[in-house]
Amino acid sequence: MSYSGGPMTEAMYYILLALMNPNHGYQLMAAIEQVSNGRIKMGPGTLYGVLTRLQKDNLIEILSDDGRRKTYAITEEGRTALKADYERLKDMIQDGRILEG
Length: 101
Description:
By secondary structure, the chain is of the alpha+beta class. The chain is 52% helix and 13% strand. It has a three-stranded antiparallel beta sheet.
């Protein structure tokens, strides 16, 4: 199954970006804050809801589950989707340069 969900939400984008290094939930919240330069402070409700969706879309996988915590990692399909959204965002910035003139 390939991701065809259209543009990613900001939460999806930053979770995938943070999962370039596998992580578990609470560490992941800190990693998201770090990769967003402090702009995004994601609570557990948002985080776990988006993690469930990303897993359903095969963009992330569970590397380990010791019953207490799950360690998540981005899949190859997730990397492809993240790169595509990154390119889309770069194109949007480029298109918006008209505002500078």
